[in-house]
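A note from the maintainers: we've had questions about how concatenated examples are separated. There is no special marker in the raw files; a new sequence line simply starts the next protein. For clarity in this README we add a label.
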Amino acid sequence: MSKKLLAIVSLLILSSMVLAACGPKVAEGTVATGDLVTFSGYSTTEIPTLDPQLGEDTVSIGYIEQLFVHLTNYDLVTADIVPEAATAWTVSDDGLVYTFTIRTDIPWVNHNPETGEVKQEVNADGDPLFVTANDFVYGIKRACNPNTGSYYSGIIATAIKGCEEVYQVEDPENIPQELIDAIGVSAPDAETLVIELPGAASYFLSMTPMWTIAATPQWAIEKYGDQWTEAGNIVSNGRYVLNIWEHGVSRTLLRNPLMPEDMQGGGNIDKFVTNVVPDTSTGYALWLNNEVETSGIPDGELEAHLATFPDESVSIPDLAVFYIAYRMTKAPFDDVHVRRAFGAAFDSATYVAELRQGQGLPMKHFAPPGIFGAPPIDEVGVGFDPDFARAELALAGYPDCEGFPQVTLLGYSGESTLAWIEFAQANWEKELGCSPDLIQIEQQSFSDLLTATKADDIEAPSMWTLGWGPDYADENNWVGDVLHCENAIRMKRECNEIDELIEEARFESDPEVRKALYAQIEDAFFGYEGEYPFFPIFLRIGYVAEHAWLDRIPALFGGDQWYTWTIDEAAQSAAQE
């Protein structure tokens, strides 16, 4: 895919500048209503949230990337950490203090969907509000607060001094102020953000593009509560503003006319329109009719698509690893032998080769190739071993699945996931003797699945499908951020010696020692004596149908940077006539 990004030709018209009485200028803008360069897309799911501190899924994170600037960003070509809200940073000699210089010309804005106006937020005195280091302090402390309800709170908690003490507080309703004050984030002035670490984590800088620690508008959150991210309410600071969010139906983003010119992103797309459709087949039909720019490709259409549209087929290895997880406190998966049996009875190689038609790599452990600390792909983990699986199920007291109770397997909505969980069901019948009626299959939207897996043991499913894509390129983002007992809230892992190894590896300074520790940790989870909180299945390498008039570079970490994408308007218009 070309890495060339066309220079943006502004189609946004700034209205007259309003001078606040005895104060600085307050900017207002109106999004142009003429011909806009428009990206049309589809989604099979609702956006779970637009709140930076609450985002935990790829859909939410993708939109948050457009609506909010982050502390730093990733270079799409090199994956280097590059400036965003922070223009520069320094690290103390002991690696425990990071000091960021924050630019102070990024406005907080609100978009009125009815009038098309984008107005800069002002304070009580009518002075314009720009992003400051204090807004990052608020966002980070908000993320550390367990009452915020953020999954990613557990991920950043171990990386920021004092955050974990607040996140793990015994009485969340009565958090001592001194604990909050002790969180290692401060703003000596509007342009300076200081973050203190509990230990010298060599990967910390690679975490700084994460949405969880983005600046958020305290006044808007306090005014609107849970409704602060709705269209018309939301106060944001990114390259786009939220124009429409009709839940479960459609959403539209428009260029933010008040964004500093050097932060617009280089792309030329003024408007992103996404409609919710029931499945990928519907979306692919829209692509064939030139009504959307990109699409997933239904399994049954892949071979024909590659033959017919070789120049409009893009293979994207996104480093996302998919798995089937267990509720470890719910019988029969409270028995490690059952967990091992079901994992070792799944034929990942056949699944990838036949059902996914080669789109991926079978996985035996969690972290994929390319992530620092990940073991070689074939050296750690059991993978498919039906003899071992049958022996483990017998050890659990269910030889040939005799007496095994009925359990539920919850998957995402969609045809491809149904094929995946039906394949699992068939494997368990073939290799373990478990009748299909013992594995009750259910499907829900992604956001509903996330909610269902947080329920108590009675209401929660026995098993469910999930995937994990990288937030930063370190093994800690895998075994530490997903499987550490304090983060595995859905699986309900109990803390043990594996977590001690994770904590040791987290702050180990010798990279070779870290690698050895992570190989030991992966084996402790997925080896023959492994705990098996879930079983890894495949690393996704998926084909996407993409019209030739779109030029983009997919992001490996965080959300895609839509503001860097370009569309050849002439080619798009010609195809749509």
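[label: protein 2]
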Amino acid sequence: MEERVNDHNVVQYHSKKTPKIISDREFLSRIVWKKTDRGFINVTCPTECASRVVTDSFVRGKYRAAYKIERKNDMETTLELVANPDVGGSVPTFIMARMMGRQLGRVTEVQERFQAMRGLEEFDAEDGRAVGEVLCTKTLTEKHPQKGEYRQSARMRELFKKYRALTDVSRKYEFFEPMMARVVRNTLKPGFDVKTKLCDVSAKEGETIGRGLALAIACNLTAEAGVNEWIGRYRSLGELDRAEEWFRPMLVVVARRLLGEVSWGLKMRVSMGAGLSILDMATDIFVMWVYMGKEETKGYGDSLLGMIVAGMVLQLVLVFAQNKKTPLKMLKEMLIVMLGVKPAVDCYRVCAGHEMQQHHAVDPQTELVATKMIELVAESIPGCLLQLYVLLKNKNLVSTTTVGSLIVSALTTGFISASISFDYDVDPAKRKESPEFYGYIPDGGCRTVIFGCMIVNSALLLLTRSFSAAMLMLVNKSYFALYLVGDMALYLGVKAASGDFHYWLPVDSVFGLFVSLLRRVIVKTITDFTGVIQFRNYPDMGGLYWTFNMLLTLAASFGCVWIGEGGTKEWEMVTMTSGAWVVTFGLFLFVMKKEYRRTFFSTKSGKQKAMDHFLQGKDDSAKKMILKYNKKQWLKIRGEVKDWVQANWWRWEEEKPVWLTKAWIAKVPADMVPLEAEQAAKDIRATARRRSKLRIGIGVAREEVAGGQVQPVN
């Protein structure tokens, strides 16, 4: 302490010993604090003092910081920290980053102190998330576990003693601590069923239950879906999830952390996504090389090259629609497309839990599915069709290599199309949003059977459809073109007649019309050749039309063989593949939850589905889904939506529900925002447009400690 002006104004001196390669540092700062009506404000800034002049012994640094502690209510306190450390001289960036981390760590220390004091009766969802982070953070105790004890068990032992709420949980449920110790060990081993009630689960059974989470995470696209499957598998966990609101949020945080720490987790998923894309492209390039090596098939090699280029062009269109408000971000995404790694990047974003940004048109999962669809319609499907056409026309090219390449391409296509349906259905958010449509895949071992059926089903339909179409093209390519145009016109006509032509994507003007047409054509083509189960959804084809389309596709396949005057082998081929498709699809229907079979005959339109979110929504979190849809789909109830927004806006501003994000506010039409809040909404939209500009801050971090809970302050 160098100087004390009064109890609220002091000058402090600090000196720091550093490694020999760096000069020692000193800081001279004035600290001023003041009590306000609702809390305290503390400001630290550099100053000068006659007793501490600058010398050659130390390099004088500067430290600027401000704390604001404000009471929100009887249970919540907000702590904001702004820090700008400058150690002076030339210091490597990583040292500055570490110093900044330590400074901001003070907020976490405060959070942990208050979190440990909270009892189980006070715990809510945010407490669960905070504890989830703690359970995955290594401690000093686990470096020296007791004999025969795993490191993770030592960590749980320490944390369950330190945190009052965890102590309460372990007293209430004796299996909880050993279960969580087994969870954080995170070894990929098969779990076993435990059907015991929550009140009777033993510590040993808790370990058995805990080992099942790793496999559930590995078998799902997101941590949330893995947790959902794990909870659904065990009766006791389902009871615990219904009894304790903090339980699932805690597990989701734990699962996300574990997913990024193991070799079979996030890295494997991204590698698999990239690997499948590369494998599919590699087979196309190999076949292209074979075709270009022969004079009579050289033109087909050029066609395959054109398909790859078309795929990239469509991905660039997707990037433009997703990021058109942020030019620099759009250029970065376009570079990712040109490098051929967009599928892997999209997969990483979904697996890592990235959320939708203000400037985005759709969420990351929808973008990932759109990328997969482009791969299917631009490369996989036409590539398979072209290969079969060439093999039927040039029998001398038939070999183990070319046939093997064709089978690999079909199975890869089947995997991609099956993963679209699977990932959507097991997503907890989708099941909560549309329980009448999502949830047909049962929990447990049946998931593997379902997924296998969908892969084989799509691969068989692709081979059947491509083979019959190739035979028709051999007779006359115009016949095939006329059939495609007529079939597509029928589908588009039905959509237009029902007033459901505009797709749900929130893209307006002429470009929106183009996107709707493009999406309709892509969905119809993919369904014709792979039968993606997801596309029976109301905004896509609709259940009844999807079923009609499958029957029409199979009938057309036999018709193409008949027109192509196929011989015995050709009839056997199409009969065998279509028959196998019927068998695998029948097995799929048998294994799926029977109450969802009616979705294959639903006549509900995408427009009706969009309006149902609002008209049948039980609360604001359900009604708010209406604004993610194209405005043309809910034009009929626009006045009701406007009244709802304006009547509840200020209540939302006060209560701050979790869904009231900047991304959602940016989608609210300007005329629906109350006049007093219009400028704030405009600022948010303007911010979304300026996101692409590179801005280098001074390392400002603000965190909110609400009742011992750390939350980012946007």
